[in-house]
Amino acid sequence: MNVLLALCVALAVARGSRYCPERMIDSCHCTAERSKQFNRQSVRVKVVCDDADLTETMQPSSLPNTTVSLDLSSNLISRVAPGAFHGLTALRRLDLSNNRIGCFSADMFLDLGRLSKLNLSGNIFSTLPEGLFAHVPSLKALHVGTDYLFCDCQLRWMLSWIRSQAVRVGNESVCVYPTRLHGLELHSLQEQQLTCDGPLELPVLQLIPTQRQLVFRGDRLPLQCTASFLDPSVRLSWSHEQRPVHTLEHRGLYVEDSIIHDCCLITSELILSNIDAGVSGNWQCHVTSSRGNSSIGMEIVVLEATALYCGAERVSSNKGDFRWPKTLAGFMAFLPCAKSSSGSAPQVKRAWSRPDSAPQEKRAWRRCDHTGRWAEHDYNQCSYTSQFTRSLHELTQLSVNVSSALMLAQQLSSLTSRAALFGDVMDVIFVTHLVERLTRLVDHVRELADHVLDVASNMMAVEEHVLWMAQSEARACTRIVQCVERIADLTLSANTTGISKVSVNIALEALLLRPDALMGLLCTVEQRLPLLPPLADSSQHNTLLNFRCHTLNVSGSPVGQLSQSTVAIASIHFPLATRRSVQNSTCKLQLIVFRNGKLFPCTGNSSNLADDGKRRSVSTPVAFTKLDGCSPGSPVQPVTVALRHFSLGVDPTAAYWDFDLLDGHGGWRAEGCHITGSAHNTTTIHCAHHNNLAVLMDLKKVLSFPPYPGEFLHPVVYACTAVMLLCLFASIITYIVHHSKIWISRKGWHMLLNFCFHTALTFAVFAGGINRIKYPIICQTVGIVLHYSSLSTMLWLGVTARNIYKQVTKKPQQPQDGDPAPPHPARSPMLRFYLVSAGVPFIICGITAAINIENYGSGELTPFCWMAWEPSLGAFYGPVAFIVLVTCVYFLCTIIQLRKHPERKYELKAASEEQQRLSDVHQGEPASGQCHGGCPGLINPSTLANEHSFKAQLRTAAFTLFLFTATWTFGALAVSQGHFLDMIFSCLYGAFSVTLGLFILIHHCAKRDDVWHCWCACCPGRRPSNACHAHIHGHAHKLNINGDAHTHCHLDGGKPVHCACRAAGQNHVTCLTPVSPCCAALHTQQLLEDETSAHVLLHDGYRPAVRLHRCSKPVRTKTRRQRELALRVPSGADASSVHSSRANSPHAHICHLAHEVCPHEALTLCHHHHMCCAKDELLDAGESFLCGKLAEDDLHHAHIELHARRQSLANQNGILKGNALYPSDSTGNIRTGPWRNETTV
């Protein structure tokens, strides 16, 4: 059925749209209906263009020819052109009401022979010309009501036409002028009453400005006169002191020509320029016509420059807008009261009143004192401009008694249902006055209680600033609340044991109870939908508040009621039973809950109160509790209230409203009230006072942000934490997988891995669980883990600082001559480091949790998973401060030691027996006179325990401590501060966390060549057997221990030094020529295990014991030729890798050491660093390799020759037997190779 009805409507609309042209404007619409004459298939079209802001009538061609009704009302049409409706022969109804049409002519209605109804009311015309309706013979209904209709002799024709045509004239068509016919209906007049005799009365006669004007010499003042244009005989003229005024340019007088507006108004303007003393006096505008004359005037006073006066001023108030003119000192200025904005109906009613009964014009006055300042003023005679304020003011003037109170309450309730539109402070004051008067009669008329509660509930919809001003001016809000609290006292009696009131914003419950019969009472306020739908503008809420109470045990909690019900906003728990309760005593219990705190504005200086100078605002409903009437001596029972937040904020506090504060204006106090718990959007408070209770919070810091701290942190926290964790775990995995190939001490390895692990644990738990306050167990776990991992990380940094200091201050063991070398010391256990760095935090966390597990988790002041403030001082912040202090002391002592002993640059291994023998062999070799005693200060790279120097380790540890401390601090601030600040600290946390992760990855991995070799070996497509070649720039010949240190040496005088090194044993090499200092510094004990042995032949016997290793790094820069062979120093006896970073490798200090040991030879010894041969220049000769081409800068200095190992010269222990220039093999023979200057053993 519904489908058929919809189809019928659609067909009717589609059929009607056929007769409505598409060129019609959008604001117009037309409808079509079947004609009542069934013998014709004709359609009637109705076009409605009301309130479409049209300034002229529509073109007839834009309307259908079958239009029978045209509505052009409530537009801006001021003129109707002749023939405006030409062609609309079927038009029967025409509505031109409420426009600005001032004159009509008969040609306007051409072709409207069928027009039967015409509405011209509400326009600005004052008369109608004769013969106006000559083209509308079928006209039967006419409406010509207007505020300016002048009933005189010019309308006599209309009376005759009305009676002859039997036209019905609307009742609103009444005469306004002249005064003797004012208010009479037009169709009831007699022709003899319509005369043109008597004084001229004009609907409009106005002079601007209207008041006396104070001007100075030289000023310019325009005057404008406007009058009704009743007929063409109306003229306007000016006079000054009864003398006609015309244009006099030499005096600055200009009279403009009169202008006629809309055929109903005529205007003339007089301009006074360059005013002098002669302008003073009375100026008048004269209206002359065939009917009579009229005039209006004003006074001009020309002042000297020294005259005192009050300047022009505009005053806007609830009584209207007043423009006060300049007023001479000591005089008073008067202005007529502004017209009300209530509409045209009241104005018409006053216009119809008889002139003799019309009240005198009401005026406002203002006095200018003798000093030229505005003083007293009086607006009492003027009415309020707002319709609400006028209506409420009229109600306050009525007498209130038992018989009239109920009707007055109903009217007041109806007016306040639109309280959201109240904008004047007097609205609230008037309502307060009426509520107080009605409350006094509640005990006589019980029905008034409901109306009083409804009015108070409606007033909570008023804007907060209006309520605040009303409270400040007249304590209006406090008086309304006190009236609501008195309702229970006035209504409860022996016959009434309980009342319950329901409204939109206030719920009231009052009971008569016997405390000895109840163990407790729990009342919950819930929201429910009203039985009838509310008005659209009645309130901002569509739900009603009502109480639901039931008895329970004393141990009951109101928090569970709010958590179980989503519509509950407050829950109140009363433990009524006490030991001192008197049997059969009766108490009067009153409960009130206000939806918000609008009726509790604090207007005074409240800096010492709970709201902290208005910084805090009410963020929950306000719950009022009152228990009185019990037996004397009964103690006041505390009350527990759970309130649901309607606004988000920070810094909560429980408070109660004290009416006596701030000179009776009231204020919030916190004494005796405290917060006992908070969960999600519910706060539980415990208060010893029975009063209006609420939770105050700082709402300005959150605005419209999500709940604080929220379920998620700022996105930058998660993103940057993820980057840091990737860097840390990359470092951890690298050092675990390639432990045996990375050149780092055993202690350093353990410390680095533990620091990275605990750092990752700290910030992973922080990002993932710091805001899990909804789950108490998880939140406590997060607090414990954060406490432990943070302390452990700081302790591992402290242990690292101590280890650096101990290594710097450790003295090397040097055995006496002839004494056997000390045995290799046993590895120092790492257990003590783990006991300190892991055991101490575990003990601290265990003690803290054992004392009170509630020390961990979230609280009211700490809405995040950490620790309570007091326990954290001794369990975390104190130990951390001590650890940082001790670590900094270690750093300072290390710096002092390094400055005192500059030769202590690297951490050295304990020398083994084999290394001690080798050292003795080299110490026995002659220095050949090159170094003047040798270079004893140079470091053997194979004895290094860590490739980083002490300074580099110190800088790394200090910077890591700073980054970790800063990241932890900014993370804590990001979750503890309010909005805006938390975003700033979250960004700072992200920046420092990423910096910490990248610093660890770059310094401990990316800058180490040994790590690069390990990464390179793990790359797909690469195998350990495949040589990886380091890319070294052809002109920057650097080759350190990792393949990039500098080893090329020269003798004095710039002559190149040739170092020939031959494989002498299983893991050692020996020099074939006298050793220079830098060659000795580069001497090592290990050769390539599985590849061909090699020796390097340099001119004049220079012999660095180096190992050729092919390892390519993708990040190294390539020469223009091809990748070159890198020289790699083999690992020591403990199988640790001997790679090093470029910046901190021992070979980076060789030249520096040469300066210290051999300053006179430093220039020549370290003139060139190293040399290498390109891979493509290697010549393969069986198992022999020849470097036939060197770097460009070294072609004239040296050449390198590589040969396969022919025979071993080492004994069974791998130690060289002898130190001759050409050592012999086991048989004592020495062989020479096929190349010049080559000797093969």
TrEMBL record:
Subcellular location: Membrane
GO cellular component: glutamatergic synapse; plasma membrane; postsynaptic density
Domain G-protein coupled receptors family 2 profile: 284-386, 713-1008
Keyword entries, A-Z: Disulfide bond, G-protein coupled receptor, Glycoprotein, Immunoglobulin domain, Leucine-rich repeat, Membrane, Receptor, Repeat, Signal, Transducer, Transmembrane, Transmembrane helix
PROSITE patterns for the chain: G_PROTEIN_RECEP_F2_2 (PS00650), G_PROTEIN_RECEP_F2_3 (PS50227), G_PROTEIN_RECEP_F2_4 (PS50261), GAIN_B (PS50221), IG_LIKE (PS50835), LRR (PS51450)
Gene Ontology molecular-function annotations: G protein-coupled receptor activity
Keyword Signal recorded: yes
Identification of the protein by name: Adhesion G protein-coupled receptor A3
Domain Ig-like: residue ranges: 203-301
Signal peptide: 1-16
Family, similarity comment: Belongs to the G-protein coupled receptor 2 family. Adhesion G-protein coupled receptor (ADGR) subfamily.
Membrane-spanning parts: 716-737, 749-769, 775-797, 833-853, 873-896, 957-977, 983-1002
Domain GAIN-B, chain residue ranges per copy: 533-703
Topological type in the membrane: Multi-pass membrane protein
Pfam hit, one: LRR_8
Organism of provenance: Cyprinus carpio carpio
PANTHER family: ADHESION G PROTEIN-COUPLED RECEPTOR A1, G-PROTEIN COUPLED RECEPTOR 124-LIKE PROTEIN
Database matches in SMART domains: GPS (SM00303), LRR_TYP (SM00369)
